[in-house]
Amino acid sequence: MKFLELNKKRHATKHFTDKPVDPKDVRTAIEIATLAPSAHNSQPWKFVVVREKNKELADISYGTNQDQVKEAPVTIALFTDTDLVKRARKIARIAGINNMTDELLQYYMQNLPVEYSHYSVQQKSDYLALNAGLVAMNLVLALTDQGIASNILLGFDKEKVNEVLDIDKRFRPELLITVGYTDEQSEPSYRLPVDEIIEKR
Q: Do residues 32 and 133 touch, judged by C-beta distance below 8 A?
């Protein structure tokens, strides 16, 4: 599917049918999503595919998001890794000498950890949020490409989600993405004319 067409097909879907979503399709979409760029190629993301605990997840969602999470066959909870040093070293360890030069291994094992040690709380938060946004957009486009609808949600209790899903507190909750099929025909949302958002200097 061409990129323009793919973007035009992607809509925020708030109501889903009972049709189940094949776990293989979800895995494929996540695999494609992880081709997204990330700062320092740190890939600081973690995906939790929620089926059995959808009701518990719905209970800590806000407003109309509750019904949406309950109705969706699958919800993907997106987390980011707050321990960037461990993340960098994990990449080096898994990639190993077969996939990385000595110079690149040193970059992940030593150089990046030194750089991360100088980040303020705000810098780290901005860093994680940026990377979460990049991979989330790739994920919903990958789902759309397979004919699967989705919606990105911010309205949920981030203080409780790790406990509900039994995820280590090291991982910061970023987004919930509801996933499924829909019969609804979505109308395109209004977009500002491109000349309204471009300035030249």
A: no
Rounded to the nearest 5°, which phi and psi values hold at 28? -60, -45
Instruction: Specify the DSSP class assigned to residue 41.
Output: G
Going by C-alpha positions, the residue among 124, 70, 113 that lies closest to residue 91 is 113
Question: Which amino acid type is present at position 54?
Answer: N
Q: Tell me the average pLDDT of the chain.
A: 94
**Length, in residues, of the chain:** 201
Strands in 149-153's sheet, in edge-to-edge order, are: 45-50, 74-81, 171-180, 149-153
Residue 72's SS3 state is coil
Specify which residues 81 forms β-bridges with.
Answer: 171
SS3 28: helix
Rounded Cα gap, residues 119 and 80, in angstroms: 16
Nearest one of 37, 5, 12 to 133, comparing CA atoms: 37
What is the C-alpha to C-alpha distance for residues 12 and 135, in angstroms, rounded to an integer? 17
For the whole model, what pTM was predicted?
Answer: 0.93
pLDDT digits (tens, 9 = 90+) for 7-29: 888 988 999 999 999 999 999 99
DSSP 108: I
Q: Which of 16, 8, 5 is nearest to 184 (CA)?
A: 16
Question: Residue 166 region, left (φ>0) first, then alpha (ψ -120 to 50), else beta?
Answer: left
As a whole number of angstroms, the distance between CA 68 and CA 165 comes to: 18
